[in-house]
Design a protein that fits this description.
heterodimer; A: alpha/beta; Rossmann fold; six-stranded mixed beta sheet; 22 strands; B: globular
Chain lengths: 504, 310
């Protein structure tokens, strides 16, 4: 057997646009093979075709050198292909065991859990995984939930495992454990397709296939390539990774938060005694694994969530409890993390989205009516200034790519805000080129004298941009560090719940 | 009023509660199966009405009550097939599909009824009588309440543990609950979500139709327009108030049935309250419940959301 899996000439079109164009790919037994590329390069489409979620228009798939026809996930599973999806496909209300066995039993009325338990125990022992089969999935931390996903595939005897962006939700320490498990799986003869856009992860694989705009650009042995070469192949031009940040002296304090505490739906504390301040010419980074209170912190700061205790001072005014509209009037700009649901109205066009929230402003209305002329002019200016790729200002925002949608939000907030900019995950899911652009815009605001609060799950972003980094864990700030004399490992430990000063 | 009389009335109210509960319980267990599979079937009222009508036609033409029961079950399953086709196959909005079904059922039963009687006197039938369980039914108070009921009342009570077993102890139940919580988890294992939801809705609706059938065969001797009179909506309220759990639904259904039985008795006894108000009691209670019940932890996460692969 020379290949575990081979794909020849695979083409998949959506509405005439080729998401995969004549893709050749092969996976050797026991290797980790990366699929590397930007968003929309066709990585997920390719893996969905292999797993039987999509039917390719053209091309042939071979498993262990035998041509196979994969029409649905059941065919893929029969051929020993398993997949761990980027967004876990778990039922939180079920136990670990129930999640693994649901839909796998082929005969009998009664649930047969005993046999499954035995088989799983053997798998877990083999990989040194220690997991309570009777725990509910909602009780588990995200890293463990991913184990459940992996166990689901192994339980179905997967020999080829596709992992789609598996580290997106993990702490650095959890990622290391995952790569450890992956190593063990390969040693046992499993072959792994790893989908990622993170260079650090690519460098831990055996081979890498770079995709760009649906086509294979290159397949390389990882040891024979470099991050620079891979980035160039991915984007199609040279990319600079170093962010040049001008030295600026922080000015007066713009926003000061003291003892902020907020509760969630069920009365649980989502923010616990959070305190920090940010000055002019300063970017405060917020690090943390998704779901540790960053979103709630931003919601309180921009006025859509009530705080149960604590104070927020903007310049010389207490602003806790003010409505979002009052805060906007005081110059607070907000880039939310879910751009299509909170940042924009997808059905509205670009022009409407550019004035959203400011439609009451005298600039954009004449009497009770909307001033279309003024809005059209603003839109054309903004489209030009922020290089928003759209036919014109009348295109629905939902039709634009994530990057261009983000540019609309940035244009709107930068245009109207003064003093404080809240940016939650502004670069998440964006392509390298757009990330560079967003970062440069945030630095521009810093130079102009804004105080910026920036949350990001990409630690490299924070280390490049932030003047100070506050690390959040379960709604608390574990410490505020200076990136110039702190390592990523230290911040990673704080993201997992270690307090500043307790790390040696 | 002497004590004996009071006791007789209380026994009578409770016995009526059991009888009134029966159609609601069948339909609620049916809708529970449907909703746990993620399909919010708003067509309960129409499905019950069609079940009642089918039972009436079968009872008056064949004279066999058990064939009438079968007819109600089949009619329910057919209504379920329509809902399933719209929601699971075509992925239409569940509420719109249900509202459509209710309008269809109201119109069609009336139309069929008119063409069935064609101006002649409406044929009638004589419905189910009480089945007294030997010995047990002789016990005072409890006997007449619990052990001297229609045969289907006992069956209805049996469906509660059966549905519980199906949901929580069988592999079908695990898959069914998975449909309601995260259908993609079945899809990625190569199992058809559509086929399973289809089956769940048809089986659930068959039970719902049976509920409508019993309403006809256990309480009436003839068909009338809008025969079910909103009981289908009470069933939906019972599901919400019962937090989508078999036992919870049973308790709420009994509570509704008690209110209805109480209302009819108070009316007969000539209580100094307008009888329209008494008849409205279960419905008023349901409005109160919906405003009061905020606890929805048991609601299936993907209830009412058509499944699509993204």
């Amino acid at each position: 057997m020379s290949t575990a899996l081979r794909v020849e000439g695979l083409t998949k079109r959506f509405a005439g646009v080729a998401a995969n164009d004549d893709v050749d790919f092969d996976l050797r037994p026991g290797e980790i093979h990366c699929l590397f590329g930007e968003n929309g390069a066709g990585k997920s489409t390719l893996s969905s075709c292999i797993f039987g979620f999509y039917r390719p228009d053209k091309g042939q798939i071979f498993v262990r050198d035998q041509p196979v026809h994969i029409a649905s996930p059941i065919d893929a599973i029969r051929h020993g292909i398993g997949m761990v999806h980027q967004h876990f496909v778990l039922v939180p209300e079920f136990t670990v065991l129930e999640n693994i066995i649901v839909g796998t039993q082929r005969s009998g009325w009664r649930l047969n859990a005993a046999e499954a338990r035995q088989k799983l125990k053997a798998i877990c022992d083999g990989y040194g995984l220690d997991i309570d089969f009777d725990a509910y999935v909602w009780e588990l931390p995200v890293g463990r939930q991913q184990w459940v996903e992996i166990l689901k595939a192994l339980y179905l005897d997967a020999e080829i495992l596709i992992l789609d962006e598996p580290t997106a939700v993990l702490t650095p320490a959890e990622s290391r454990i995952l790569f450890n498990i992956m190593g063990k799986m390969c040693a046992r003869g499993l072959s792994i397709i790893l989908i990622t856009h993170k260079l650090i992860e690519v460098m831990q694989s055996n081979r890498v296939t770079v995709l760009r705009k649906g086509k294979v650009v290159a397949t390389l042995n990882t040891v024979e390539t470099s991050p620079d070469e891979l980035a160039r192949l991915m984007v199609g031009r040279a990319v600079s990774f170093t962010i040049t940040k001008p030295e600026l002296k922080p000015g007066e304090t713009v926003v000061a938060v003291k003892g902020l505490t907020a509760h969630g739906h069920w009365g649980e504390a989502v923010l616990k005694d959070v305190s920090f301040s940010v000055a002019r010419h300063e970017i405060l980074g917020i690090a943390g694994v998704a779901g540790n209170g960053q979103k709630e912190l931003f919601e309180v700061l921009c006025g859509v969530r009530k705080a149960q205790a604590g104070s927020i001072w903007l310049m010389d005014e207490e602003i806790a409890g003010l409505t979002p509209r009052c805060l906007m009037d005081r110059g607070v700009g907000h880039i939310p993390d879910d751009r299509f649901r909170e940042g924009l109205v997808s059905e509205f066009n670009v022009a409407e989205n550019l004035v959203l929230g400011w439609q009451r402003s005298a600039k954009y209305r004449s009497g009770p009516l909307i001033n279309s002329k003024a809005i059209a002019k603003l839109s054309r200016d903004m489209i030009a200034e922020y290089q928003i790729a759209t036919r014109d200002e009348k295109v629905a925002a939902g039709k634009l790519s994530g990057g261009n949608a983000q540019k609309i939000i940035i244009a709107r907030e930068f245009r109207h805000a003064a003093g404080l900019m809240l940016a939650n995950q502004p670069t998440r899911g964006l392509d390298v080129g757009v990330i560079e652009y967003v970062q440069s815009q945030l630095l521009r605001k810093r130079t102009e004298g804004f105080a910026v609060i920036l949350a990001s799950e990409e630690l490299s972003d924070l280390f490049g941009l932030a003047d100070r980094i506050a690390v959040m864990f379960k709604g608390e700030i574990m410490g505020i560090v200076d990136p110039r004399n702190t390592t990523i490992t230290e911040v990673g430990a704080m993201m997992a719940g270690r307090r500043q000063g307790t790390i040696q | 009023m002497n004590q004996l009389f009071q006791e007789a009335i209380i026994v009578s109210i409770l016995a009526a509660t059991m009888r009134t509960m029966t159609p609601l319980l069948f339909s609620a267990m049916g809708e529970l199966i449907t909703q746990r599979a993620g399909i919010w079937n708003m067509g309960v009222e129409g499905t019950m009405l069609t079940g009642s009508f089918a039972a009436y036609i079968a009872a008056t033409t064949t004279g066999s009550l058990w064939l009438a029961v079968l007819a109600a079950i089949v009619a329910g399953a057919l209504m379920g097939a329509i809902i399933a086709f719209m929601t699971a196959t075509l992925r239409v909005d569940h509420f719109i599909a249900g509202l459509g079904l209710n309008l269809l059922a109201g119109g069609l039963t009336l139309y069929w009824f008119q063409s069935y009687i064609q101006g002649r006197a409406q044929p009638t039938f004589s419905g189910f009588q009480d089945v007294a369980i030997p010995l047990l039914s002789d016990i005072s108070v409890i006997g007449p309440i619990l052990f001297s009921q229609r045969a289907l009342t006992y069956v209805a009570l049996l469906t509660v543990p059966l549905v519980w077993f199906l949901l929580y102890r069988s592999r079908y139940g695990l898959e069914l609950r998975c449909l309601g919580e995260n259908p993609k988890a079945l899809d990625v294992k190569g199992l058809s979500v559509t086929a399973r939801q289809f089956a769940a809705v048809m089986i659930g609706s068959a039970l719902t139709g049976l509920g409508g059938g019993f309403l006809m065969l256990g309480f009436s001797d003839r068909f009338l327009a809008d025969f079910t009179a909103g009981r289908g909506w009470i069933v939906i309220v019972a599901l919400i108030a019962g937090n989508w759990k078999p036992k919870g639904v049973l308790v709420t259904v009994i509570a509704f049935a008690f209110l209805e039985a109480l209302a009819t008795h108070l009316q007969v006894l000539g209580a100094p309250v307008p009888h329209q108000l008494l008849l409205a009691l279960p419905y008023l209670a349901s409005i109160g419940l919906l405003m009061g019940v905020r606890f929805r932890s048991g609601q299936p996460t993907r209830l009412g959301i058509p499944y699509k692969r993204e």
